[in-house]
Amino acid sequence: MGIVPLPSHIHYELLLQILERQTLPSLNPSSDEYLQARQVVVSLRKALAYQKNLENRCRHLDRPVEHRWSLNDGRPQNHSY
């Protein structure tokens, strides 16, 4: 079994920063949209925690984990010119 490709943590952090610093302040805190945006933040934090648990489990099982920055990381590029 090979490397387990997972998203880089920075992807979660970027989304969380946009939501917390820009999206939430632009919404009325008593609105449904604000509550939905807060739920997105909670969901992303949970997703990152789940991913970290998966990474720890893989490492415990001696499965290497590789954080990917894009879909193209770790794969040869096909260029058609």
As a whole number of angstroms, the C-alpha radius of gyration is 17 Å
Structural class: mainly alpha
Could you report the average pLDDT, rounded to the nearest whole number? 91
Quickly count the helices: 2
Overall, the morphology is: elongated
According to DSSP, the number of beta strands is: 2
Uncertain regions spanning at least 5 consecutive residues = 76-81
List the quaternary state of the chains.
Answer: single chain
How are the SSEs placed, and which strands pair?
Layout (H helix, E strand, L loop, with lengths): L3 E4 L1 H15 L8 H29 L4 E4 L13
Parallel strand pairs: 1-2
Salient structural properties:
mainly alpha, disordered C terminus
Structure, briefly:
The chain is mostly helical.
Description:
- This protein has one domain.
- It has a two-stranded parallel ribbon with strand order 1-2.
- The protein is mainly alpha-helical and about 80 residues long.
- The longest helix has 29 residues.
